[in-house]
Write a structure and sequence with these properties.
Layout: E1 21-29, E2 46-51, E3 54-61, H1 70-86, E4 90-91, E5 97-98, H2 101-123, E6 126-135, H3 137-147, H4 149-158, H5 167-196, E7 202-205, E8 213-222, H6 226-239, E9 244-252
Antiparallel strand pairs: 1-3, 1-4, 1-5, 2-3, 6-8, 6-9, 7-8
């Protein structure tokens, strides 16, 4: 049916309805209470779709191209963080979109609700923390020059030579320093694991956050062990104070400890 000549819609036709999909933030136990004012992408209220004792946190999302805008990423993180404060959560990575609530219930929750329930049970009472460290530049360079005389000799050989006259040697020096940093990072990551793992349930190595990274490790920590874990981080931070700037992030949703979804 077409609109009339004056632009009015024929009787019985309403305004065009914009289709929406469901953005999925994660899985929580059924009956979880979320903050009343919690909003997802597009400023839409979030809600629960429940099935078999578990629930998906979802929100409406208008049709669009690929996701990834800063406000979309922040909205995702805000919802997951708020849910993690309220209850144990199995967080989804950014960008999970399903066609509708029925599809969430029938295609996601129905075939996997027992597996979701088992994972949530394993994660209950446990939080993720991330420990990162960056080398203090002058301190780590002194260590490298002391531990690797050949690097110190090459640095001295270059001295104040013009860049044009020592370009190759400077490349060689830079590569030698990078190799030394890689080796030190491996040793320091092992040291960090030895100091902190006794206070944790599990650990997951993460990619270095940059060339100056000394360590980047996620830990799953039981709530009862959190005080001893934080004390151990403080002790290592004091021990490394002159050479590494150590940081503790968390508690966080356990992204690094979500197993791969089992197919049925």
């Amino acid at each position: 049916m077409t609109a009339s000549a004056n632009g009015a819609r024929p009787a019985g036709e309403g305004p065009p309805v914009e289709e929406t999909a469901c953005y999925v933030f994660g899985i929580v136990p059924a009956g979880t209470r979320l903050p009343d004012d919690l909003l997802g992408l597009d400023g839409e209220p979030v809600r629960l779709v429940e099935r078999g004792g578990v629930a998906a946190i979802v929100g409406g999302i208008a049709p669009r191209g690929p996701l990834g805008a800063r406000d979309e990423l922040l909205a995702h993180e805000d919802v997951v963080a708020a849910a993690a404060e309220a209850e144990v959560i199995l967080p989804f990575r950014f960008g999970a979109v399903v066609t509708a609530d029925d599809a969430v219930a029938q295609e996601l929750l129905a075939p996997h609700h027992a597996w979701f329930a088992d994972v949530l049970s394993d994660l209950r009472g446990r939080r993720e923390f991330v420990v990162t460290g960056d080398y203090r530049e002058e301190a780590v360079l002194r260590e490298i020059m002391t531990e690797r005389p050949e690097v110190a000799d090459l640095r001295a050989e270059i001295g104040d030579l013009p860049v044009e006259a020592s370009y190759g040697e400077r490349i060689q020096l830079g590569e030698a320093v990078v190799r030394a940093l890689d080796d030190k990072r491996a040793v320091d990551t092992d040291t960090l694991l030895a100091a902190l793992e006794p206070h944790t349930v599990a650990a997951a190595l993460r990619d270095p956050s940059g060339e100056a990274a000394a360590a980047n490790v996620a830990f799953l920590v039981a709530d009862d062990d959190r005080p001893s874990f934080e004390d151990a981080v403080d002790a290592l931070g004091e021990r490394w104070a002159d050479r590494v700037s150590l940081r503790l992030l968390g508690p966080l949703a356990p992204y690094d400890f979500v197993p791969i979804l089992e197919e049925v």
